C-alpha cells in the first residue's frame, strides 16, 4: 500500500481529498500546517507528498526545499497560485508536478498514479546505462557521475532515462513530452520542459553553458549527444 502525506490547511478540501485517496487504497497522513508536515516527514516514510503552498505557519516551497535535502520522494504542489512564475518556481526547487485549484479529483488521482508508476516501473530490469562519466542503474533508479550519486526527482530521472534510451537521436519537444507524460493530462508545455532540462544539466554537465550530454538543436529539439552502452546486471 502506497503511503501519501497530504499537507493542506483547507479542512473541507483536505477531508475530501483524504477520503478519496483512502477509497483508492492509499494510506494517507494529513497535516494542516507546515510544522505538522515536517514532523510527519521526519517520522515516517512516504511514497508521495502533496503540498499546499500557502500554509498558516509557512509555505510549501520551503518544505519542498527541506525535503529535497534528504529525499527524492515525488512531490505534487496543490495551490491556488496559478501564475507561470509560481509553477516554474515549484519545479525549479524540486517539485514533480503542480496542480492549481480548483481542480478535479480525478485529475489529482491520475497525476498521483502516473508519478507513482514512473517511480517504480524501472525495478524489474537489471540494465545499466553508461555514457561518458554518467551511469544510470535502471534496476535501482540510481544515477551516478564519476561514481558519485546524483539526486534527481522522479520527473528528472524519467527524462534522463528517455534521453539515454534514445542516445544520438534528435527528439522533438512534443515527442519528449509525450514519453514523459505517458498520455496523462498535465500542464506541461515547452517552457516547463526547458526548466527540467536546465535542472538536469546543472546536475550532470561540467559546464552548463557548453553542455556535452543534452544538446539543443535550435528550432528542432534536443539530443543526448554521447554514445550509451547498455550492460546487464544480475
UniProtKB/TrEMBL annotation:
One of its GO terms (cellular component) is cytosol. Coiled coil: none annotated. The modification 4-aspartylphosphate is found at residue 52. Residues 126-226 form the OmpR/PhoB-type domain. It holds the Pfam family Response_reg. Residues 126-226 bind DNA. Keywords: DNA-binding, Phosphoprotein, Transcription, Transcription regulation, Two-component regulatory system. Transmembrane segments: none annotated. It comes from the Bacteria. InterPro entries: CheY-like_superfamily, OmpR/PhoB-type_DNA-bd, Sig_transdc_resp-reg_C-effctor, Sig_transdc_resp-reg_receiver, WalR-like, WH-like_DNA-bd_sf. GO terms for molecular function: phosphorelay response regulator activity; transcription cis-regulatory region binding. CDD domains: REC_OmpR, trans_reg_C. Residues 3-116 form the Response regulatory domain. One of its GO terms (biological process) is regulation of DNA-templated transcription. May play the central regulatory role in sporulation. It may be an element of the effector pathway responsible for the activation of sporulation genes in response to nutritional stress. Spo0A may act in concert with spo0H (a sigma factor) to control the expression of some genes that are critical to the sporulation process. This is Stage 0 sporulation protein A homolog. It comes from Clostridium amylolyticum.
